[in-house]
Amino acid sequence: MLLAKSTENAIQLIIYLIRHADNDYIRVKEIAEQCNISFFILSKIAQKMIKAGILESYTGPNGGIKLVKNPSDIQLIDVVQSIEGTDVLDKCILGFEHCGEMNPCAVHQHWKEAREVILNMFEGKTLKEIIDIDELKEVYSV
Amino acid sequence: MLLAKSTENAIQLIIYLIRHADNDYIRVKEIAEQCNISFFILSKIAQKMIKAGILESYTGPNGGIKLVKNPSDIQLIDVVQSIEGTDVLDKCILGFEHCGEMNPCAVHQHWKEAREVILNMFEGKTLKEIIDIDELKEVYSV
DNA sequence: AACATTTAAGACTTATGATTCCTAAATATA
DNA sequence: TATATTTAGGAATCATAAGTCTTAAATGTT
Ligand code: SF4
Ligand code: SF4
Questions:
Q1: Can you give the residue range of the structural domain that contains B130?
Q2: What residue is closest to C3 (Cα–C1')?
Q3: Which of A93, B36, B100, B106 sits in a 20 to 30 Å window from A58, CA-based?
Q4: Would the pTM of this model clear 0.90, i.e. be above it?
């Protein structure tokens, strides 16, 4: 499993937020219902992203959560790291101790290539680009 | 984390086996010591790979485990699947229910590309190729 | 001020994987 | 046959992640 389940949920939450953003706060309960995720789980996840500076919240009636920055100023990696910590993809595919470029294990170069692509997926695109529905329509002609 | 820790250990075990293969059975204890992995853990992992038909074992003095097939006839994906099950990379990066090519979620195409590369790493190369030290020397000029 | 709504935060339980331990079975060797 | 070696396999423990619940704090509405 590449991503933890809570990170999957975090991405779903973000996608929902972007698609329903209209400068108002959106209730976590609404997102939980629409995305079919437990409210309790989602509110914990939201809290992590708030601490990471991705979301802000407002307590009370008409309250909820919303994005702090513009979707085009957030990378997917920011979301991933806000949940899983900053060293998700620093880790290697094997557990060898004294390794790396100078003393590579047998799969080093292969894993390096794959990680490059994964990183590119997480860093190369902003949330705006990733979530852009028109782009998807073009590709899949839906 | 892409791979479970036990899968990391499985790959380490396989690498050791290939590099020390001389048609004899190799004791799990020896591998455990050399790879610095708990013997108990490694013997469980070995049992899984035996059930998957990758290794065979022999009980008693001079016993141990060895590869069933030639390293050039085994794909890395076989090792991974023997430990984690066959649907490791079938799963999607998100948890959406009704999705896929016809109804792609917002990151479908990006994850598809990355998964392609990972699969290629696991399926495209045989263990022989991956473990080949000369190939590594060439690339890293070690 | 009283009440309803909504996030905040911690406690608690459950599920899953990692790790360790122990006994049995197989088999070579003396 | 007795003994030492080595895998087989289950039981038990520990760690971490996932999921649930409960109470507190903030704040708009009446
Ligand atoms: S040599 Fe490279 S692939 Fe191998 S364990 Fe080290 S960092 Fe990972
Ligand atoms: S649409 Fe594609 S990327 Fe999205 S959840 Fe489904 S299979 Fe995964």
A1: 5-137
A2: A61
A3: B106
A4: no
